[in-house]
Amino acid sequence: xxxxxxxxxxxxxxxxxxxxxxxxxxxxxxxxxxxxxxxxxxxxxxxxxxxxxxxxxxxxxxxxxxxxxxxxxxxxxxxxxxxxxxxxxxxxxxxxxxxxxxxxxxxxxxxxxxxxxxxxxxxxxxxxxxxxxxxxxxxxxxxxxxxxxxxxxxxxxxxxxxxxxxx
Length: 167
Hints:
The chain is α/β, with parallel strands linked by helices. Helices cover 36% and strands 31% of the residues. The relative contact order is 0.12.
C-alpha cells in the first residue's frame, strides 16, 4: 500500500536502516518474517518501521485498556455556604464519602456571598472540619485556596488507607 518512490526504514530494534525503495524494504521485512508498517506518512521521505504488526496491535489495545482504567476518575464538587447547618454538612460529607469510595476526586467549596467574604477564617474552619471528616479514606490532593469569592480544597482517594474504587 506504500506508493512513494523512497522511504526511510527503521529496524525492529529502532535502528535506522536508511532510505530505500519500498520493494527492498518489503524484501527485508519478508526475510525476517515481520511486516513493514508506515508510521509517519507526512515526513519527507515517509518513515516505515519493520515490526510484527499483530504484536503491535495487541500492545496498542493493552495500552488503551490501561488508559481507560486510570482515566475513570472524575472531579465531583460539594458546595457549602458559610452558614451551612450541621445536618446539611453531614449530609454533603456523606455524599463526598460515596464519591471518594467510587474512585472520584472531590472538590469541597465554601462560597461567600456579599459581606461574608470578611469571614474567610470561618470558611477555612468549615473546610478543615470537612478534611478531618474525610481523613480516614482520602488525602488532600490540592491544598485550600481562595478562588475569587470561593475557598476550596480537593480531596483524592487514598490508596494506602484501603480505599478501592467500587464498580
